[in-house]
């Protein structure tokens, strides 16, 4: 694996600065319950409840209630101790981010000194404080699923579908309406609003959560759902894993898929490794988690090298075609890919209630896409290169009944598309090598695709969250976040026709549509306030969110006169109410209702597209005054446990979607070029989605 030296040095620099940086863990879960005297049923105040192997714990109040905040997702053992009573341990307690795990204790007066009661908890099939549809998969469940990546886990969820292009959709939404987070850090590609920029190995995951209903106010800039991945932390013991598998594609459609019957067991292989544990000589205060995954896939589309890019052809005389055939006739993979993703995480327990973390994500892709026209000239298609980095630092500081988190991150994306890396490479051939064309659709008899495309970004941001358990009923959470996205995009068409351009030529930027470039910066700010209200027979999640976006750019004042004046785009501001209510109707059944307004900015590449005019045509225009897209979401659902190992979940939902982007073709009269038209994305589309989901959960029943 080759890693850019600039980024490699930055990775080590960030690791070196780790101990001096402050930033935040993704919010953990909560353990709450009540302690009673087993004989009298009276509440026991002053009982100590601790999580074994940690410094987390609480004491019961006068009513016997206790709350332990800020518990990272995972599996724990609780211990209750009180003078004059036998100790009680509850093992296998599963904690999930943003959810309350309830564990009640019944303690008996100590009859035998040192007597201890041990209880093994089972993860509940019905989550009583669930006010919107969501699914949580633990590390054990992910390991047991027959999937290669966490994307495969997502596709097993009710309401999650895969489109024809392989992208994910939640409940009829567009693929860029899903917000992705890794340990609370957004990992979106800013050009596409919410496209996933970084991947991680399944073996590095502690928990995967998918929220497909109305999510809380702390989440923004997404309209369909939230995917939150929690990464394992290193513990006191060293643990590791290694897996490898290989295979090939097979089909009886030999006429469609050339070379598909040539079975090669090593054409597609995956290597996956993880290692975590304590850093030596740190007394278990500093732990690490490393994971890497390498995927080499030859693909299933093959071309035949009958032609090479330098071949010529002439079809101008229908009775006398001239076709060169300089290829060697070998099969060539046309959709191969090689992907590497690396994760490194350090956790430093600075004090019993202070924890620091540093995390690095790196994702690298090298691939080609199948182009049918070049099936017999496979060397003439684009190569794609994708390199994405995400660096984050986190601080979590807990108090008795509250805690705060600070999260700072820096992320980069770098995408390139070309046939040959140098746009003036002499291997490019004149476009006039192919003269005329057959009367029917056919293939490319020579030549190459002539575009060069470059897209890179760097993003910086931070988030501050504060959570406080005011009393046994109210958990208040508030926070602010800021993000700055710097985007650069260059689109080049190489000009080479042996007439005006005798060699491969790149014209200056933004003088013609053959070379466009923009360099823009966008600013985001958000704030939210939410209250989780918990009663025995009702749980409410109520919140409000404020979002601010400034494109820092101008736009066409009159779309019917694009060559005319321009105006500065105004910042966009939106307020989003969110409400979710759960009603536990029995110990095994819960009804829930949720409602919310959800906004997200359109893809930034649609805002900043270059507006370049030329005699040969126009580029696709950007429009900086686009409004945020909006979804109003309603949901009504039921969770019901059936027996000891079976549960069902049903949801009815309705989504009213407004201000979606739609491609518009605008025709107008140019004073310089005459009748012309151009393409532009505007807030002209809308949608309505109504549906239901039904899922069945069967727990392993030994």
List strands and helices in order, with pairings.
Elements: H1 5-16, E1 29-37, E2 48-51, E3 57-59, E4 65-71, E5 74-82, E6 85-95, E7 100-102, E8 105-107, E9 116-120, E10 134-138, H2 139-144, H3 150-154, E11 160-162, E12 168-170, E13 178-182, E14 185-186, E15 188-189, E16 195-196, E17 205-211, E18 225-231, E19 239-247, E20 268-278, E21 286-297, E22 302-304, E23 313-314, E24 322-323, E25 331-333, E26 337-351, E27 354-367, E28 383-398, E29 402-418, E30 434-435, E31 451-469, E32 474-493, E33 515-535, E34 538-550, E35 554-556, E36 566-568, E37 572-586, E38 589-600, H4 604-608, E39 629-642, E40 646-670, E41 674-698
Structure summary:
It contains four helices and 41 strands. It has 702 residues and is mainly beta.
- Based on helices, strands and strand pairing, what is the structural class? mainly beta
**Rg from alpha-carbon coordinates:** 29 Å
Sheet with most strands:
16 strands, antiparallel
Largest sheet strand order: 19-20-21-26-27-28-29-31-32-33-34-37-38-39-40-41
- The geometry reads as elongated
* Poorly predicted tracts of residues: 1-26
| Number of alpha- plus pi-helical segments | 4
CATH domain fold name of the domain at 29-120: Immunoglobulin-like
Give the tally of β-strands. Answer: 41
CATH homologous superfamily of the domain at 29-120 - what is it? Carboxypeptidase-like, regulatory domain
Instruction: Just give the CATH class of the domain at 29-120.
Output: Mainly Beta
What amount of the residues lies in strands? over 45%
Proportion of helical residues: under 10%
Distance between the termini: 44 Å
Mean pLDDT: 88
CATH architectural arrangement of the domain at 29-120: Sandwich
